Amino acid sequence: MKVRDLALQGALAGVALVAAFVVWQREPSAGPGEVTVVDAPVRALDSIRYEDDSRFVDVFRDASTRDRLWVRLGQKAWKTGSGGAQDTDAGTADAGAAAASEPLPPRELRGNDVADKLFSRFAPLRATRALGELDAKKLEEVGLTTSQRKLTVTVGGKTRVFTLASPSGGWGTPYLRSEDDGRVYLLGPALLPDLENANSRLVDRRLHTFDLGDFDSVVITASGGARTFSATGKAPGPVSLAPEEAPERPDEFARNWHDRVWRLIPIDFLGRDELPAGGEPRESFRVEYRRAGAPVGQVTVAKGEEGFFVRTEHTTGWAKLHAGVDALAEEAARVTAPVSAASGK
């Protein structure tokens, strides 16, 4: 009898585990009153694209790593005069004017946690209401007649394109119309603003994914010399640095200098494979972070034609720094000087 009871309990437990797994794998259900616009699981979603008459934003999966998101920011051809985009084949403008109308190349940047959350909300894509097919007068009233704004959702290599209503006094009411069947939907208010402000909301602006206390030594290189410091302490820091050759004598100057390096905040992130104006900047100094002898990360500060730039183990490329880094670069030589020279002895 006891064996039978144990077997029954085991079977029930197994059924419960299977049910829990099925529920966990299931896509989130729609809320009260919601309608599904694009019915697809998030794992099948390839990209989302927002565009208007002057720019576009793509949030897409990396081709080699499906679990990594990238944000592509680009401009469309600039408008000149009242005739719309400049027609360089018509011979109505000289070569200089034609070149001036060309947009900058798109910039690809790593997506942040907000991008991950936003991406998952597009598959399935849901709306608060389905309005069906509207007549021409109603389409004009809601701003869908002449709008240049588009939303494209790509799932499994297939695209669904929607026209977004022209904004009135800001984002206004987010109406969208399917270009497949002409049906109009009313989106919730939280989806589109992140795409509109993608540069500030969706881009990963971290220099490191580790924190103070996650390393126990640093190697600072500048002016052809290098010096190793042991590091103690943790966030909010700053950490204490003591030269390897004199571990009993913490270096206050190096500590303060490193704290300023750690707190560098870029003002503009360049995309992957993008170089600053004038080409590869020249390295001014480098800080390597280690733990138990193994590399944790690094930060390189270099000078280009337009000022100083920084690059780390996490950034996709160079990032432009604010003015005032000159002093930090000059002091790096003092930090890497031998103990006798640094102390003035």
UniProtKB/TrEMBL annotation:
Domain annotation DUF4340: ranges: 118-239
- Give positions of region: Disordered: 79-107, 231-250
Per the UniProt entry, the signal peptide is none
Superkingdom classification of source: Bacteria
Biased composition, class Low complexity, residue ranges = 85-100
Sorted alphabetically, which Pfam families does this protein's record hold? Answer: DUF4340
Output this protein's name: DUF4340 domain-containing protein
